Amino acid sequence: MTPTAKLLCMITLVACSNTAFSGGPLVIQGAAGNTPVKYQNPAITVNVEAGDLGTTSNTDANMLLQEALDLWNNVSTSALNMSVDTTAITTDIDENNFTTVLPGVNGGAQNNNDNLNPVIYDSNGAIIDAFFGNGASDNTLGFAASFFSIGGDFFSEGFAVINGRDLGITNTDFILLITHEIGHFTGLDHSQININNQENISGLPFICLSTMASNYPVMYPFICRDSSSLHLDDEISLSSLYPAADIDNNLGILQGNLVNLAGDAILGANVFAVKTTTGEAVSSVSDYLLQDTGFYKLYLPAGNYKLHANSINTLFNGGSSIGPYADTILSESFTTPHPITETIYQDAVTNDDAIITIVSNQTVAFNFVLDVTVNEVDNTNNTDTGGSGGGSNKILGAPSFITLLLLLGLLATTRRLFFCSAKQARLL
Ligand SMILES: [Zn+2]
User: Fold this and answer.
1) pLDDT, tens digit, for every residue of 263-296?
2) pTM of the predicted structure, to 2 decimals
3) What's the 426 CA to ligand 1 centre distance in angstroms?
4) Which residues contact 378 (CB under 8 A, 6 or more apart)?
């Protein structure tokens, strides 16, 4: 593939004061403010419009869309099942009639409860330009979002708009980007897992540095993956939000609180388990449920793991954020005690990396105690886990566009085409 300097998706964030964007789930609401928002019925039908996707026929576009949906549908530990209906929207939706099915361009919320879940093929990019400004379709692949209400548990419906202009990307990247957007549509946030938490060279931000493209999840803020498949971390994120009825027969749970020596919660850190035999990794963000406890929870396939923690990459704020504490560069994920150098949970007896055995249908629970003054793990291994507590009420800041500008300038120098997607949820 030829690296090109194109921003494939607009970074936007519809900010509202009670919205939390969390590791794993994208929106935390519910009566107590600690519930990951999802679709109540995991069988979700999206209705595609009748027109073509630029030079791609409607039929062929529907096949690409179905391929992206099937990546999520095929996760055996999740109940999600998304399907495409071509009969409800019988017209070609374009810049002249999109207001009949899509929300308002300025965050307005019309058409938010007509059960359409429209997928719109924006053949000439004019709808994307209408939402994000003239020229946006030069570098925006598409965007997707779902509607929720303050205190609610469920999305009412969602929508996706896909750019039909020829932006010079391969079918694989196209499917990965649609898959990423559909991930946000279903309620998934970005994730970082075991990627170097400060991917840079000489202080400049570079991304997709890992030698193994397969190490990057689809829900990484940038498309660094190079095959149209999900990473284990993607599968677990989806399964956590839409668990199959028999999920406990096939996965175990590792959970606890990430705390400092005084027992205080460490907020917004990347906590991830790495399987010792395969290197497969699954991540969570500490305190992703906004309980002020540092709570993390990982569904894991049976096996032996090491538990790691580090900080979120400082590039990943604003529309690229990971977890509920990364809205701006001044948010908790990027301020003291962060940055936390990657640290592995230690065994109290051997003083070496602890090997944690996960068995299906069992929960392993302990607190991960970090001496953040020296960035070392404390050997305390207690079994106090979970925790309740009031919901936080984080105010979202404006997305950081400084990062974006930096990345735009660097794109031509990186080895792969990648890109960030719009991460949205919309208030009803
Ligand atoms: Zn995204």
Assistant:
1) 999 999 999 999 999 999 999 999 999 999 999 9
2) 0.83
3) 15
4) 261, 369, 370, 371
